[in-house]
Amino acid sequence: MKLNLGCGGNKRDGYVNVDKFPHFTPDVVWDLERFPWPFETDGAEAVALTHVLEHLGGPPDVFIGVMKELHRVCRAGARIEIVVPHPRSDSFISDPTHVRPVTLETLFLFNKDWNRAVLAEGKANTPLGLYHDVDFAVTRVDHRLTPRWAERLTSGRVSQEELRDAMDTYNNVIEETLYVLEVRK
Questions:
Q1: What are phi and psi of 15, to 5 degrees?
Q2: Which CATH number fits domain 2-146+174-183: 3.40.50.150, 2.60.40.10, 3.20.20.70, 3.30.2270.10?
């Protein structure tokens, strides 16, 4: 089974398209903040969340519940594609339904190897993967630049190093980010 969670009007062929709004006529009408999800444990081989995760889990326990359910419904080795607006982009900041910035560091909190390494160093990061017995490995991170910064890069007006500095310093450099996770069980 492949799940397209929070599909809205962007249905995918070969996927079970899920949304809480019946207006979009998804295959399954379900609010992803309601647990447990109506899918079998270890049943999903792939999951897509495109501009969805930033809308889920304003309260931390709800966000953690989403991550736990995501882990539960996926089989070992499942691939999860997450696309989110960058938290320092106008597209994230301007939408009042965006309740959660999703960053690489957010996802690392659900990686048991990273949790163990941080604990061994005596750092105070929250080892959510260990606390909740979920484990996701981040296998890919791709940033889509805003048109202005993409043009600056392709025209040679900024170098890769200058772009990296800008990404760490300024708003509206990165428009959205794709994270690919692998489920570990």
A1: -115, 155
A2: 3.40.50.150
Between CA 123 and CA 131, with CA 127 as vertex, the angle to 5 degrees is: 145
Name the residue type at position 101: P
User: For 161-179, what is the mean pLDDT?
Assistant: 96
pLDDT at 127 over 90: yes
Q: What ranges in the chain are assigned the alpha helix state H?
A: 60-73, 90-93, 104-108, 112-120, 128-132, 147-154, 160-169
pLDDT band at 128 (very low <50, low <70, confident <90, very high): very high
d(CA 52, CA 102): 10
pTM of the predicted protein model: 0.94
Longest alpha-carbon distance in the chain: 51
Give the domain ranges of the chain: 2-146+174-183
Query: Locate tokens 């960053």: which residue?
Result: 103
